[in-house]
Write a structure and sequence with these properties.
single chain; alpha/beta; L,D-transpeptidase catalytic domain-like; 11 strands; about 20% helix; cell shape
Length: about 220
């Protein structure tokens, strides 16, 4: 065995340190590529927002690359005076919460009303619909004449703006014309684009709908503090 000079040993150590550091860096990159920023793996997110072939109109998988991971459905700590089951809409942060037991809530990412169309207050679910017919209000037809062709109603389906499920919001026995609905546009989540309604990803809306009976209280928080 030949002797190794101090300089050569130092070079070997430097090389080993470099290789170890590189391996660690590559490992970190690999892990980063498999997880979202909120700790949910891409595989888990893909499963959560996968296709729903059993629907009347089969729902395709959501393109989760168009959704900020912070808007994925998850259970979070959420202090509230509201009873479990209550729905809380937070338009300022683009979230909808379903209050659960023990200071928890199921949180969903949402789209909300754009400037000039936002509202706040207490309401309740007066009616529920699956694959509802959509009828544009007169005010919308005036603003957007292209929707006049649906003045007598657009049948349910994948192209229908209300999507697979709709919760119709009432106040004092009267329909407010506002809804929580299923959106098929993943890039709309986290933005203000609607005429006051609130949209969740189709898979999230089905999840919320299945747990929400008629008469459920809905609290819509102010969009601005």
């Amino acid at each position: 065995m030949t002797a190794t000079s101090p300089m050569h040993r130092a070079r070997l150590l430097d090389r080993r340190s470099f290789l170890a550091g590189s391996a660690a860096s590559l490992g970190a990159l690999g892990l980063a590529g498999c997880a979202t920023t909120d700790g949910m793996s891409l595989a888990e997110a893909s499963a959560l927002y996968g296709p729903v072939p059993t629907e009347k109109f089969p729902i395709p998988a959501t393109d989760i690359s168009k959704v900020d991971p912070k808007y994925y459905r998850r259970t979070v700590q959420y202090a509230s005076k509201e009873a479990p089951g209550t729905i809380v809409v937070d338009p300022r942060n683009y979230y909808v919460y379903r209050i659960e037991e023990g200071g928890l809530a199921t949180r969903y990412g949402a789209n909300v009303g754009r400037d000039g169309f936002r509202w706040s207050g207490d309401a309740y679910v007066g009616r529920k619909s699956e694959w509802a017919t959509w009828t544009p209000p007169r005010e919308m037809i005036k603003r957007q004449p292209e929707v006049a062709k649906w003045a007598r109603g657009m049948p349910g389906g994948l192209e229908n703006p209300l999507g697979a499920r709709t919760l119709h919001l009432y106040q004092n026995g009267a329909y407010t014309l506002y809804t929580i609905y299923a959106s098929s546009e993943p890039d709309s989540i986290g933005s203000g684009i609607t005429s006051g309604c609130v949209g969740l990803l189709s898979q999230d809306m089905i999840h919320l709908y299945n747990q929400t009976p008629v008469k459920t209280k809905v609290v819509v928080l102010p969009a601005l503090s």
